[in-house]
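R.M. (postdoc): so does anyone remember the format we settled on? I'll just put the structure tokens first.
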């Protein structure tokens, strides 16, 4: 189990107050779910699908990532994933080169802090 403090969560782009509200002020339960995030495969699947130009699979994986980050109150990562999901839903890949770097940066920040 990770031992992350409130300020660390905020540095990860997590809205701590929103997270505690979602998890009924049960920080231990939240940390359990947060710890599982690093084992989730949706980010990897999204990247692989984008590399293969499989828009449908990329959308599905990005949508899963959007749901997970939203439920964990990862506001920064969630915001950027939402932008990508919106474009993929419209089969618009013209902005991927601009949309992907912030997702990679935010995801990397969260994963590094969870290690």
């Amino acid at each position: 189990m990770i031992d992350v403090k409130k300020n660390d969560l905020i540095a990860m782009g997590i809205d701590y107050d929103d997270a505690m509200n979602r998890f009924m002020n049960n920080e231990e339960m939240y940390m359990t779910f947060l710890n599982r995030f690093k084992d989730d495969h949706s980010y990897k699947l999204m990247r692989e699908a984008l590399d293969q130009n499989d828009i449908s699979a990329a959308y599905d994986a990005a949508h899963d990532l959007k749901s997970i980050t939203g439920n964990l109150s990862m506001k920064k990562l969630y915001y950027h994933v939402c932008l990508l999901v919106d474009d993929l839903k419209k089969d618009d890949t013209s902005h991927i080169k601009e949309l992907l770097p912030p997702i990679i940066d935010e995801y990397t920040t969260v994963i590094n802090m969870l290690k």
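R.M.: ...and that's the designed sequence above, right after the tokens. Also worth knowing: The CA atoms of residues 5 and 11 lie 10 Å apart. The longest helix spans residues 96-114.
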